[in-house]
Automatic annotation (TrEMBL), chains A, B, C:
<keyword id="KW-0808">Transferase</keyword>
<dbReference type="GO" id="GO:0009228">
    <property type="term" value="P:thiamine biosynthetic process"/>
</dbReference>
<dbReference type="InterPro" id="IPR000417">
    <property type="entry name" value="Hyethyz_kinase"/>
</dbReference>
<dbReference type="GO" id="GO:0004417">
    <property type="term" value="F:hydroxyethylthiazole kinase activity"/>
</dbReference>
<feature type="binding site">
    <location>
        <position position="166"/>
    </location>
    <ligand>
        <name>ATP</name>
    </ligand>
</feature>
<keyword id="KW-0418">Kinase</keyword>
<keyword id="KW-0547">Nucleotide-binding</keyword>
<dbReference type="GO" id="GO:0009229">
    <property type="term" value="P:thiamine diphosphate biosynthetic process"/>
</dbReference>
<feature type="binding site">
    <location>
        <position position="44"/>
    </location>
    <ligand>
        <name>substrate</name>
    </ligand>
</feature>
<keyword id="KW-0460">Magnesium</keyword>
<dbReference type="Pfam" id="PF02110">
    <property type="entry name" value="HK"/>
</dbReference>
<comment type="pathway">
    <text>Cofactor biosynthesis; thiamine diphosphate biosynthesis; 4-methyl-5-(2-phosphoethyl)-thiazole from 5-(2-hydroxyethyl)-4-methylthiazole: step 1/1.</text>
</comment>
<feature type="binding site">
    <location>
        <position position="119"/>
    </location>
    <ligand>
        <name>ATP</name>
    </ligand>
</feature>
<comment type="function">
    <text>Catalyzes the phosphorylation of the hydroxyl group of 4-methyl-5-beta-hydroxyethylthiazole (THZ).</text>
</comment>
<comment type="similarity">
    <text>Belongs to the Thz kinase family.</text>
</comment>
<keyword id="KW-0067">ATP-binding</keyword>
<protein>
    <recommendedName>
        <fullName>Hydroxyethylthiazole kinase</fullName>
        <ecNumber>2.7.1.50</ecNumber>
    </recommendedName>
</protein>
Length: 264, 264, 264
């Protein structure tokens, strides 16, 4: 699969997917810039009278509940239903799952629409799986990552989704396998919204790549390798934020493949 | 006219116009920074109970429909009507014109208020002119730019607006003439919202300069020359985004005039 | 007190307070990054069904009315009341106070809830105090800064708040004393939202430091010294914006203490 990932990156660059984002205020600028940097075309639109039309002209949909409210909740539902009716792929970023009852009510509704991909950190994936009340605990699930893998496996089974858990190691789980990606840099946790950026990049890749697990793995490894390389020239999180955009734009085949740490 | 443009830039720096922006979430931060960098004072405000008051204290108004919804649509109408009643100049950025029926309905209403200036890319200007159903095709309008010029000419005639078409060559059209600006750098297309920034800068210039075509030409050339110079020191779109802000702030008479490529 | 300030900075780094922000669209990204850079954890959330829950899990609340509208006004009131009922500290940034009657109506309501800290520029603090109709003019209040100090003193008395006036000299006023902070760089006025960032940092510090005046002084001096140092390596406001984030992240004891200009 390693050899496929770079091909997927090239495919996004050449096919320039149109990605419709209903996302949060904090990350809109960075997300749009990250999508442009990898060769995709971002649309940010949330108006209820137009989200169905935007989904119709896009390759994929990104739903991120970071700064949601009642209006945005409705927009997200309309858009996700439209994506399903058109069989277009979409990705859910359950920002802050478990933080408030409101988030969980909204997420429960969105989750019932069976996202193509779900990407969150371990605690969000765990909170999301609990909305189903059916998490099957593995034998050795004491550690957070094991608990998250159990939660992800539950979500894969119940919603037919590919599930990505972001962390020191990124994990991509589908029905058949579990991929571990060991790239990135600790400084990335000090830049706001890189998780949201990861989700948006996943949105671009699933828009044009058939194998959704490979698409997600390509997106996540592209971001974490870019972050790893960018961190070397960054004196803090401010410069890292822009150096990542530069590296997403100019990363080479050799840089990507020589740094990729992928295991199954 | 070339000699006038730098004078206009100096005038904005010294008179520091207050620019009221009702714009999209993606670009608010960059737009505000770009306005500060050229010496203007940005206000971002969209609340219906206050937009008329904000228009009243401002030199000009910027309306950008990028992430509009029903509430923002109403705010834009209230603000534009107030600007007209006070004879204050305002500029429309028809982001995504033609992308959805909703956008076109909203744009049709805003357009009926006859913006002082309209700035968009070729496809947006073409879509906007079609809302009138009266585009007069020129003899040789097969190419996109010719079609856009025809569309712009229609908008100039019907709405008494100055129309700016952004692209590899920026074009400013009014009743009397057509100006061509050949500055910029291809990397600028990889930074989100530079078109929106162009519109905001036009907003600042029309706030204090009587000749609206010259004001628009000064704003567009200031941004594209700054981008052209900034691109030389940028390793990607992330660094370009901030280098443009720096250059807007510290560009000199000599830098501006030696790079300006203006033809009529 | 000088010796306390760096200890407060370290305390924020180690205790990583959760800071709930109901703030404006323009600065959300920068504010979140600044909070992360100093070691705090930002939450941005404004939905009426969840703001009480967010306040409950946070150490402190930041209310910034920059791009308010009716919905956000209600959210702010709900959140501030909840903070009061839980005796959690909160800070008000009265952006644009006095600019429109609407802002003053909203601010009057928020002010009645007695913010723990208020931070604004001189004209905002003066406008805010006038909402009370009870500003006691000092003998020599002809200058703006004296007028602002009178206004701040009124607010301290009427609302039991600590009041911060940002400007060339930052001033922190409580019942007992008046602190003057003389750090910063003029280029900081060309970066949008640094005042809002100051408020957010105050939010982080009051979340974990008992003495609210010292907390505010530590936050303001941390930002202005970081800006002062960052400006030395910045060729304009674009690079300053990110260099400040870097410096907030990596400023040392020695850098801070050798530059601090604090007088009583």
């Amino acid at each position: 699969m390693e050899n496929h990932l770079w091909q997927h990156i090239l495919q996004v660059r050449t096919s320039s997917p149109l990605v419709h984002n209903i996302t949060n205020y904090v990350v809109m600028n960075n997300t749009a810039n990250a999508l442009l940097a990898i060769g995709a075309s971002p649309i940010m639109a949330h108006a209820k009278p137009e989200v169905e039309d935007m989904v119709s002209i896009s390759h994929s949909l990104v739903i991120n509940i970071g700064t949601l409210d009642e209006y945005w909740h409705e927009s997200m539902m309309i858009a996700a239903k439209k994506a399903n009716s058109l069989q277009k792929p979409w990705v859910l970023d359950p920002v802050g799952a478990g933080a408030t009852p409101y988030r969980d009510v909204v997420l429960s509704e969105i989750l019932s629409l069976n996202p193509t991909v779900i990407r969150g950190n371990a605690s969000e994936i765990i909170a999301l799986a609990k909305l189903n009340n059916t998490v099957t605990k593995g034998v050795d699930s004491t550690a957070m990552s094991n608990e998250a893998i159990d939660a992800a496996t539950t979500l894969v089974k119940n919603h037919n989704s590919v599930v990505c858990i972001s962390g020191e190691t990124d994990i991509v789980i589908d029905k058949h396998q579990c991929l571990f990606l060991d790239n990135g840099d600790p400084l990335m946790t000090k830049v706001t919204g890189l998780g949201c950026t990861a989700t948006a990049l996943v949105g671009a890749f699933i828009g044009v790549i058939e194998n959704k697990s490979e698409a997600a793995a390509a997106a996540l490894s592209l971001l974490s390798i870019s972050g790893e390389l960018a961190a070397k020239n960054s004196s803090g999180p401010g410069s890292l934020q822009l150096n990542i955009i530069d590296k997403l734009y100019n990363i080479t085949d050799k840089e990507f493949n020589s740094h990729l740490k992928l295991t199954k």
